[in-house]
Amino acid sequence: MTASPNLMSNLLTILIFLPLAGAFALFFLPKENGRAIKHFTLLVTLVEFLLSIPVLTNFDGATAAMQFTQKFAWIPQFGISYNVGVDGISLWLLMLTTFIMPIAVLSTYAAIEKHVKEFMIFMLLLEVGMVGVFLAIDLFLFYIFWELVLIPMYFLIGVWGGERRIYAAVKFFIYTFLGSVLMLVAILALYFYNYKVTGVYTTELSALYNLNIPVKMQFWMFLAFGLAFAFKVPMFPFHTWLPDAHVEAPTAGSVILAAVLLKMGTYGFLRLAMPLFPVATFDLMPFVTALAVIGIIYGALVAMVQKDIKKLVAYSSVSHLGFVMLGLFALNIEGIEGGILQMINHGISTGALFLGVGIIYERSHTRQIADFGGIAKIVPLFTLIFMIVTFSSIGLPGMNGFVGEFLIMLGAFKTSQTATVFAASGVILAAVYMLWMAQRVLFGKLTNAHKLHLTDMNLREIAYMAPLVLFIFWIGIYPQPFLRKMDASVNAFVVQIHAKRQAAIAATPAGETLLARYFDVRK
Amino acid sequence: MAPIPFDSSQVMQGISCIAPEAILVCTAIAVLMADLFMPEDGKASLPWISLAGVLAALGSVYALGSGRIVGFSGMIASDGFGMFFSVVVLSACALVLLMSTGWSERAGTQKGEFYSLILMSTTGMLIMAKGTDLMTIFLGLETLSIPIYVLVGFQRNRMTAIEGALKYFLLGAFGAAFMLYGMALIYAATGTTKIAVLVYMSVGGGMTGSPLFIAGIGLLLVGFAFKVSLAPFHMWTPDAYEGAPTLITAFMSAAVKAAAFAAFIRVALLLFPGVSAAVGPVLWVLAVLTMTVGNFSALGQNNVKRILAYSSIAHAGYILVGLVAGDLLGGQAALFYLLVYAFMNIGAFGVLMLISQKEDDGYDIHNLKGIGFKYPVLGALLTLFLVSLAGIPPTGGFIGKFYLFSAAVKNGYIWLAILGVLNSAASIYYYLRIVVYMYFMTPEGEVVTPHTPPMGYALALCACAAVVLVLGMIPSAVLTMAEQSVLSLLM
CA–CA separation, A239 vs A237, rounded Å? Predict the structure, then answer.
């Protein structure tokens, strides 16, 4: 593809604002014609996906630098700029977002019948926020996009959700907002600290990365940023909003929530909390790892006893995201690459699981495991695809989940063997709850056939499941192209964070404890 | 005492300095006169006459510019600071007048005295914003307050109106008395009421040794706290806001608050630094208390007017955060916030006035069920204003809060900022609750049919929405304006 340099330099900006333009255009479409609105939204998200492909193909995996950057002064008197770019860490998350959106839109064709226009406007606004979060390399801009995601998702859950949608929507909003406001204070503190040291007002990330923040300050700032991200991931014990939100959200909402929104949290750790506060990252690593492992096991155990398939998948997310966090906080190349890859894998697999649940829910209007049984006989194609997705979620070799989890374990084993042993039990538990669920739903004696009105997947459903299945195998069998694109960035990340830590160790007296370092508690 | 020499050029300068006020007073009288000789069916032109006066005043504000013109031996001055607030107050007044075109007829306020009182009150606000002498500030305060007392009780057949007006009047009188007493004590301690001289005397802690002065400043603070409704001096606010005709509630929450804060900010930025050890902690506590009381009281309300009344208390707390910071950034953030607040709050009331069929019960939150999808434009507008009030990007409300809290952090008030943002998170609940009713709930019966706004009304709503969005996305120019305004004060 020979694109003009002009297009290339504006590409990321176009990616951010194309959905906004689409949402704006939708505003003027007559609301009676739901089908046309759905087609139009699908078109916008497909164009968005096609436009994101040149980012991937032209991306230079040999450098850790930000690419396709674009920068304008925005609020110059405060050093705030519109500043976007992509590197090996954000590249795949961007691709995941643009990839999953058309799929999510396609999944709504039969499910969403009321207020179609508003639904699609919110979907597109959501995409603006998500793409923006992954592309922003200015702290202020990041925060804007971060918050921008809340409102559309709130509406998606609150209007088109199930029975307890209002409770779930409000809970989702308040929990995640509560986390992020404290991050705002930390952003401000960081901003003024930078000014104090350098004499320049700026929110540009590349400048802030170079700061040597006093360790005590790092500790509190890491906690503030970390809380915002921990709510979003969500890490145990900040996860309670997630099952509610997932269960009540419409299928497309659940898909986006699982595939992309949760990744904003893990991405936030990787992009902001860890590189900005490296010393605190290392010091708090045991705690984060412990919470990650607790999340893995707790999520799996709770998933096991769920009666509602969607809730089971929701808790499995808590467990899977625990793996991602474990990988990221291994703080070595294997762990972090595994973590990033697992973010993508979880997006694909869990996205597909929610879509599968959506497919049978649309027909039978139930999600209770007990209501099903033996449906493999009437929906063989669905069963095949659902089993593939299930195996991918468990992490069967040859499928995507395996590669990610393997890398994570490899990385984590180097830093904490105990944690890895416990985490590995999560893999076994995953096999238990997923297979048990699949067995009870798909196999066995066909019990409720007449009540369920099940028919096998139609062409539209095959069309949106097929790409997901393709990537399940592609990443599982040949993950190299995915990993190579992130190598340089992850490598630079690891080198830098370790170097900063070494410098900090050299500067602290020998034998200093955490209590002494952060709370001035000395013997 | 030697006779003051008459200098005609000085007098002319003084008169030019109060040109906007003079135009408003003349318009107020003209409206009363026109009302007298006007047939009943011509009354619809009254808001337009008033609006013409307000726009002329706005024009004269721009003609005066941001250069410093001192009038009447330093009693009043037209400077960048005064100009900023004149623009805020006059815009708020213009919006309210535009909205009255679609409202007064059914609310029974299509009367000459109604508009005349609004204009009189606006005059007082301008005087208050430009006063450079404590006496002028008091004069402005009374000129703005007395018409408002009347306006709150304007619909005198409603119990809530009478209750609100009486409460407001009694507590307002108390507040004014506190303030005046404070001024008297300051005069007793220093022999002057001129702010510039007081600054000169108090700078660097020159007056910290004088208990009279400190007590005076304290009482002054209490007076302002009454006017801008800081907790625990906020008791009148929910009742007065609920009782007042909604148009006046919007006017009070935007314009009266801005004017009272104008004088408050002038005094706070200039006089408080000299006595910061005594006043600083008090302001800190007031800010936290006001935010918390406002937000948490709003949580349980079912009347939308009362929700917004408590929200307005909370917002006074946020703005106070800027004053606690007390530096250029804090002042500038407070100015910016007051501007945004005027537009978003008038906008929110503007939408509610269309939806509600009558006062009191008409503002019950249950009436909003189903509005969002049935009337998408109204729903979207109200959502936008609420999102802005909640401080979520990309709206002006977010940028405003961002700078208020950044001023706090910059000056080392990390805890204040943390308490502020936590409050902001709590406030989400009641703002979103309104959205929940509009969009998420299905009405049991018919969805209420909102009134169709006439052209001018629609224009005012669009203006509010545009300002809220533009200030949220490209705030740079207005931030610079606010900065210049505060600088003109500090120089």
Answer: 6
